[in-house]
Amino acid sequence: MKKVKRLLITGLAIFLIVCFVIFLMIVVPSKQTQNLTTEEQAIKSAVAQNQAEAFELLENLVNINSNTVNLAGVKAVADIVAKELEALGFDIRWEKPDGVNRAAHLFASREGGMGKRVLLIAHADTVYAENSEFQKFSRDEYNAYGPGVSDSKGGIVVIIQALKALKQAGRLEDSNITVAISSDEENVGEPALDARVPLIKAAEASNYVLAFESSGDFSEVMTARRGMAYWQLNVKNEDALDLEDASYENDFMFSVNFIVGGTAIDSEAGHAFGKGNVIPQKTVATGVIQCDTRSHCQQIQTEMEAMISQTDDRSVPTEVTMAFNTDEAGDNNSLSWQLITEGQGGYSAKIFPTEYGRAAIFEMARILSIFTSNITNKNDAILSSASILSNFEQALMNEGNYGLTFNTGVTAGGTEVAFGLETSIANVSGKSSHAQQAISYGEIRYLSQEQCEKTQQQMDEIVAAANTNSRADTTADLEFVTICKPSMPVSDGNEALLKKLNHINGALGYGEVSAMDVIKLGTADINYVADLDNIEGGLDGLGPVGGHSHSIEENMQIDSLIKATERAAILIDRLTHARR
């Protein structure tokens, strides 16, 4: 009998525990949603009602190519946004700073009531060239795909749909809101500070700034961001000789006569496209070895094949392939070769971690530097350039430079190279000669102004040493083509704003939000304004959740668009109805 009684008590205890767990799962979330006011419940309902039109708007925006230098495309995107905001009662104005070769920035504002003033930021431009294979919107059950779908056309849709929901709930009329849609966030026009004067003026009249770049996880937003600066390396060898006239050393002659690397390349035509803030996907280099005997050429081939197998941790997951072609050439033998490195493209802030590796251009530079160390060379601009890039990596990418990343977005070399800084396109001519010219273009990302300046000094010293110790008749010139653009530092105001967002996330039943690791981040428009004295707090990453930005796999999680819109609308409502 005691045993039966004990079993009954145990069973009752288990039953009560199960009931308590069910209570926590059902009752507690319902209490969380009760933290939303009646007005906020109406805002949430309005967002849900407008879901279909939100995706229709997103598709329309994504299907317009709006690469930064496609001024007509950027303007077409902004025109759609302006029409949407004008219908919500916003006053529209266009700002185009003098001397900056970019489309006009869109600003839309409305005044009302005594609440706080909020600035909402997104951008109309993308990194995808007009000839990119990645041009159209598509979706499946879980994700949407397309250029700018998350960076930041998805953010634009979140802003518009949040404001629509506020209007439908009767909460927009007494709000002080400015929307800023920049035309060149991905490739800021120069001078950069001139290009951002309109945004800074808008921020000077605001109390809070909210930016709608994508986040990689709905549980993370950005309370800080790194700064960014662009650089260009030019290497020339005016005395390079044609292969037919070149002299031999150690009974053979080695040259790299052609290279192209970037996001999109055409090695046959000699074209390379790449952005400083995009990890390059592929690099192709070609060269020639002329030997005294065929067996000597075969020996060098074997040595080169052994050299390219010397990988390290950063080589993964880069793929390397090499091909040789041996032909008779007069009294001597000629060995032509082609080296290809391929890696994962994407957002440059993520370069060098295990999942992205060294990237195609740096892996090419590493291998060519090994060739330089083991094969006598004269009169080659490409090898000199590769050696400098490899030295940049070794000097800068180490634990002593916490917070720093370094990327080369495009490289090209040959007899002649023409590079357009605005278009980020390099055109190369000449494959039959020693390379007379090589260019590389990229960026650095850093935590502070001091770190940027220190990095620039290190790079200058590496180039100066290369010029002093050059094994060939080459000269290298390093130019920093932009200023050290500001970082967005962590502040008490940003942390306080994160707490407000956390409360909203909890009320919506979406869990806790934390600050994203700043090491994953780079520069955005909010960097120019978040640290102004009048700004009480700022957050970025309030757009939908996405991945693979700056690559042809850019995507957005379908359900995150509505979640981000709900959260943004309620945050805007709470901020704009707080007394000044």
Supply the key terms.
580 residues; alpha+beta; 8-stranded antiparallel beta sheet; 6-stranded mixed beta sheet; elongated
Write structural notes for this entry.
The protein is α+β, with helices and mostly antiparallel strands. 35% of the residues lie in helices and 25% in strands. The chain has 13 helices and 26 strands. It has helices at 2-33, 38-49, 51-62, 71-87, 153-168, 192-195, 197-204, 294-308, 360-374, 381-396, 449-468, 492-507, 558-576; strands at residues 91-95, 105-110, 117-123, 138-139, 143-145, 176-182, 208-211, 220-221, 227-236, 252-262, 264-266, 271-273, 278-279, 282-291, 319-329, 332-342, 346-347, 405-414, 416-420, 425-429, 437-446, 475-480, 514-515, 537-539, 546-547, 555-557. Strands 15-16-14-10-18-21-9-22 form an 8-stranded antiparallel beta sheet. Strands 1-2-6-3-7-24 form a 6-stranded mixed beta sheet, sandwiched between helices. It has a 4-stranded antiparallel beta sheet with strand order 4-5-26-25. Helix 3 (51-62) runs antiparallel to helix 5 (153-168). The radius of gyration is 28 Å and the shape is elongated. The chain starts with a helix and ends with a helix. The model is unreliable at 24-34 and 242-248 (pLDDT under 50).
